[in-house]
Design a protein that fits this description.
Length: about 130
């Protein structure tokens, strides 16, 4: 495991669950090492897609113990600016991905995501899968 901080995008959580893996177990080494972070957007995207209530509760408890990068007013100003800058280059990532990217930059975290939008953000390190980390 690289000595770095990580923010796992909702798409990576969903990929794990679709593969029959429990994200809590897979991400436990990063959490124990103090290297795992999340932001409110990731939490909301993951939890809204869970179909079984007990599973929802388990993941909610997991997110409660993972350090959260605040999505405050300053972050949203940075999201707006980043979106504007990327738009001038013909890139239009979803606002949710912009918020995740800015949160990761704030925490100096590597984003784990199969989504290509993150690769357009200057200064953001992105790994496609958790296999590149664990």
């Amino acid at each position: 495991m690289k000595d770095a901080n990580y923010l796992v995008d909702s798409a990576a959580y969903i990929d794990l669950m679709r593969a029959g893996q429990d994200p809590r177990q897979v991400l436990a080494p990063l959490l124990r090492a103090g290297r795992l972070y999340h932001c409110g957007v990731v939490r909301a995207e993951v939890l809204r897609g869970i179909k079984v209530e007990i599973r929802y509760g388990q993941m909610e408890q997991f997110f409660d113990i993972v350090p959260e990068i605040p999505t405050d007013a300053r972050l949203w100003r940075e999201v707006s600016r980043l979106g504007w800058e990327l738009g001038r280059k013909g890139k239009w990532p979803p606002v949710s991905d912009l918020a995740i990217a800015v949160a990761a930059l704030r925490a100096r975290a590597i984003v784990i995501s199969p989504d290509v939008h993150f690769r357009d953000v200057s200064g953001l390190e992105v790994y496609r899968t958790l296999d590149e980390v664990l």
